[in-house]
User: Fold this.
Amino acid sequence: MLLEAIFAIGTIVLTEFVRVTATEAIRSWINSYEKSQPRNQSQNEGNPVGRSAQDITADLEVIDAEVVELERKEEQDNRLSKPDKERQQELEHLRSRKFKEFQELRSQEIIKEQSRNPDNFATTKLDKDRVHVLQFHMGQVVMEKKCRTCSRPMILQSKKRLDGSLYQLDDFFWSCVGFYNDHPFQCKGSQRFTAQDLGLLHKADIFEFQISNQELSTIFHQNSVEKATVNRLKAHLREKDDEVFCPIHHVPMVLREKREHAGVALDMFFLGCPHSGCKQLVKLKSPAQLAAYLSRKEGRGIL
Assistant:
């Protein structure tokens, strides 16, 4: 078993996957992960004692707030002074460095959690009935999966299915976060999501993973379930999601409701970047994505 990617919520994408116990999978991927790290790299290198990934998230938000102020100043004055331009460049480098630090710390936290509590995790082999397990992770921060072109992180994306039909595994792919940057920092690197012999190591208490994609869709579209889901989501409007980061500004995105929608849950909500003027968003367009958001905020999904 080899490590493909780590989602920030602790789910691991494993290649060359065979049906094994969670304990065996955890032992295997941790060994693989440790071998992939530089020999002289200490887990605490560059990290002050006691700092967590959540602390780094707060740092990123402070950095972004200062960047926004400089952008407003430039808009008002039609220019920036030389010191302000230098500070702006310094903040951009600091943002990149902090986001890398976030990924490293979050990976370490996941290792510790899984090694201490292996019984809290389970393994799932991906197939056409488990497509919703991938949708559950759409938009979430991914570690270890690097773009072959520029070495930046990649995120899980999917093709559009405007006809409302069920998604297939072939609809998913990896996309470089640099895709959303302006030239010359843009990177359109992408990789096919190969589902053959691929599996996930995930928390065992996610009820949505215990049923098929079709069953989840059928249950969700019951009027009482959909209505309850909408009401729960509306209670979290304008709240940030610490597991879904803007691919440009590296700050947690915020739950919002579309101004114009069709009146159904799968067309109502999205996560948007709080950075002034940023148009990056993640549409919550499947039952699995709505369940994932509620699970992160309330500890349980739609079931």
Observations:
- The two ends are 31 Å apart (CA to CA).
- Residues 82-116 form the longest helix (35 residues).
